[in-house]
Amino acid sequence: MSEFAIEVYNIQKKFRKLTVLDGIDLAVQKGMIFALLGPNGAGKTTLINILSTLITPDAGSVRVAGYDIVRNKEEVKSSISLTGQFAAVDEMLTAEENLRMMGRLSGLSRKEARLRADELIEHFDLTDAARKRVGTYSGGMRRRLDLAGSLVVHRPILFLDEPTTGLDTRSRRALWDIILQLAREGVTVFLTTQYLEEADQLADAIAVISNGQIVAQGTPMEMKSRIGNEVVELRNEKDEVIHEIPTIGNIYEVKQILEQVAAEMPINTRISIRRPSLDDVFLSLTSEKGRVS
Ligand SMILES: Nc1ncnc2c1ncn2[C@@H]1O[C@H](COP(=O)(O)OP(=O)(O)OP(=O)(O)O)[C@@H](O)[C@H]1O
């Protein structure tokens, strides 16, 4: 058996003349949280839709849970759960009714569906709201219900398309805890996000997608060290950053930088030296414009 839950080779996808995915290669180890990080329109949803068999690639191959997504579509489908960007729940029903219905539709008996719904309601902190119509829920509650819905049936691989988009900080953190818990239970989680902090906090491995290509891959630490070295920051008296100068960080170069800028800066300018943030990495990797071929 492969150590990989997801293996992607040279995936290509065009919509009319727009190249949306241009030779994607990825490998996700079993049991890890993998974050696909990219700006709006980078191709994240398209890739997740391919991996979850919703759309077919023009070229390349993908194995999910060891199955080919084109030849063994049904086996792939029964190995995965998918939570979309827009919660697929019925607003007229309560959380309890939605989850029970999903259980029944997935082939659980009436009793199994009831038990599973109760378990998920508790796990996702929806007990107080369980018998209220979903139409009255906050964004955070909806998202938790959507995630609960994707877990009605136990599956080894979970796809989450921008799971925390639009959530407030508290709900986002609650959802992170749930995702981390699922990973501890052995679920492989593949999520897309536009948030660097989310990828940094959650993921064992990150791939950055930009214009349909993977422009960097690695652990959050590796990504940060890729961009290399320290940045000399100059701040004014209001503690605002007025200048950032990349440096290899040795004492000689920092001395040279300071000598160059000292003459031009007000006397009360303060300096600090910081490691690059994931933001720096992301911005430097995704700054290209879109491309049509
Ligand atoms: N069915 C489609 N037909 C035509 N173009 C499409 C289709 N689906 C996606 N696109 C285009 O493909 C590009 C990538 O879209 P995709 O939704 O995969 O990006 P994304 O990274 O998920 O962005 P977002 O964060 O905005 O969802 C966009 O330019 C989008 O308009």
Automatic annotation (TrEMBL):
Its main location: membrane. SUPFAM superfamilies: P-loop containing nucleoside triphosphate hydrolases. Keywords: ATP-binding, Cell membrane, Membrane, Nucleotide-binding, Translocase, Transport. GO terms for cellular component: plasma membrane. It is found in: Cell membrane. It is a peripheral membrane protein. Gene3D superfamilies: P-loop containing nucleotide triphosphate hydrolases. InterPro entries: AAA+_ATPase, ABC_transporter-like_ATP-bd, ABC_transporter-like_CS, ABC_transporter_ATP-binding, DrrA, P-loop_NTPase. The keyword Transport applies. The keyword Magnesium does not apply. Residues 6-236 form the ABC transporter domain. Belongs to the ABC transporter superfamily. Drug exporter-1 (DrugE1) (TC 3.A.1.105) family. This is ATP-binding cassette domain-containing protein.
